[in-house]
Write a structure and sequence with these properties.
This protein is α+β, with helices and mostly antiparallel strands. The protein has helices spanning 17-32, 45-58, 69-94, 97-109, 111-116, 123-143, 146-162, 170-175, 188-212, 236-250, 255-268, 278-295, 310-338, 343-378, 384-395, 437-442, 452-459, 462-468; strands spanning 399-403, 424-429, 445-451, 472-477, 488-492, 502-504, 507-514, 518-519, 524-533, 541-548, 555-561, 580-581, 585-588, 596-606, 622-629. Helices cover 46% and strands 15% of the residues. A hairpin with a 2-residue loop joins strand 6 and strand 7 (507-514). Helix 1 (17-32) crosses helix 2.
Length: 630
Amino acid sequence: MLRYTGYNFSLPYIDHVDEASYNIAAQMIIDSGSARPIGMHGYPPGIVYVNYVLLNLFHDPTTPPGTILWMVRLISVTFSMGTIVAIALLGFRIASPLTGLLAAAAWTFNPTVVEFSRYGTADNFVTFFVIFGLYLLITGVQLNRQGWIYSALIASILSILFKYQAIFVLPIFFLFPLWRLTNPEIQKSTVLLNFLRSFIIVALFGFWLVFLFPALEATSSPDWSAPTSDLTFPTPQAFINNTGIFYPLIANDWLWLLGWAGLFLVVALRFARRHINIIGLAVLALSLLFWVLGMSLYGTLNIQQFRQFVSAGAILQLLQSAGLTGLLFLIDSTLKQRLKTRLSDFRNANAVVVIAFLVLFVAVNIPDLQLSRFNAYEHTLPDRRNDLAQWMDVSLPGGTYISETENHKTFNREWGGYSGSNRFELYEVVNFETRSVEEWRALGVEYAIVSQYIYREMQNSEEGRAQLAQTTLLKSYPESDQFRGPNMVVLHLYPMANSSIGQLGPILVAGYDLSDTSARPGETLTFHYYWQASQPTDSAYAVFNHLIDPDSGEIVAQVDGDPLDARRPTSTWNDPAEVIMGSSFSLTLPEDLPEGTYELVTGFYDRNTGIRLVDESGSDRLPVATIVVE
């Protein structure tokens, strides 16, 4: 429930940029045979080909390729669930069923792990193959099952196909089976022959990866986290810093101190080692060490690179759980020694210790469970960026905009999943305050999407208020516990030239822009209105604009039309705080229109019934401006 709940969060907006990258790469392979145009031709092919298969099987070509992302996420979440099972099995193999259950439970409830489990990225796949591969490897060596050892090697290769960094633990899968040479009951020739076969498998895979598949060109991928240009000798400082990226997120309670104490005692006390598969424990410790050392070849990474250490985090969790159960085994042995003459007393004391520990374990993990439960709920909420994209598409003419990071791809069809009709081009990811409104206009920018925080900061300063006075606040998305995503406002970088002229029914004519108040016969006046609606109308109303001879009352020119895009009728105007920037109207004066003074009036009418909206006095039209015809 913690993982599958909200698996389709944010869609159709694509929250994670990597999800879009894999999806676009797969579509490019379908369309042109290669993902080279975006530099993804050398990227680990596993996650790209998951998208590729689903696009081939289920994608409607008339829709954006991102429409199949919910399927990718479902598969990814399922592999995340498989990792929980693999952790339980591996914990059982290195110590006991309790070890596996404790590690699996802690991994299940960890809020950071739950957060990352829903993304359609490579992390869930590689973690499953690494952990399940280690289970197969240790089991195969312990029980001398060569088929299991080969299967472990295949699992390791699959993990590399999803993330090249998994190659750091490949030597363990390749070399650990040689440990069987220490067993006099196993023929050394058989072990060496199997090792040779494994060597051939690894050699063939390496040849394909390097010489046939362009893995060495992976650094051209967008946001590639392991560029070869950063390769360096791993320093102790880099190792410590990189461990600090994932350790605090996994080891987030004081039970870890007990776990490390128990692990130390198990290793240090000879009699205690019989409770733990010490060789299996060493394999896990080496795998963790190799992974972090391998990532440290790229220097000190940052906290955003946590995803590179998910597999290391799972191994870490297993080591801690082995330490906890090792501590319980030591307590069990101590009780048995002290109460060896009274077996019933030992059983009672043993049960009390185990039950008390399990109660303690559950109590300590309740905060994690609560956070993960909230995380699952939060992912069921609609994303603000979908509302923003839909609103701008049907309410505003296309144009160039600036925004902060949260909306840098909201209107990007490929990377953000935008499927609207109007085009909104991103000019720059930047803070609105970095330039004046006049400078933004000169650069062709029409809209600014500004965070609520920055907007409030501007309202609280004289300079900010002066800058906001040169804009029109069109729409506000305030803080709400009913939505996820950023809180923001949308500004039009031009103020209303003329203010409110009156109200008809629930619709206030908040202002208008008019190209000119004087014209010659045959010329065209252009104008548009700004409206605010206290509530939606009962049906879709159209706008009429009449140019009237004030002496005779005769209509000398007129233009009617929808107030906005037909997809945004007045019956949907349900936000009283929204300023609705209407469509542009063009009113052409007759060629033979006598000179004089005329009046431009406007109003709303129902096309089906002819009924008009009226003001408080009963008038069905509002005077807009006086037009002088020369």
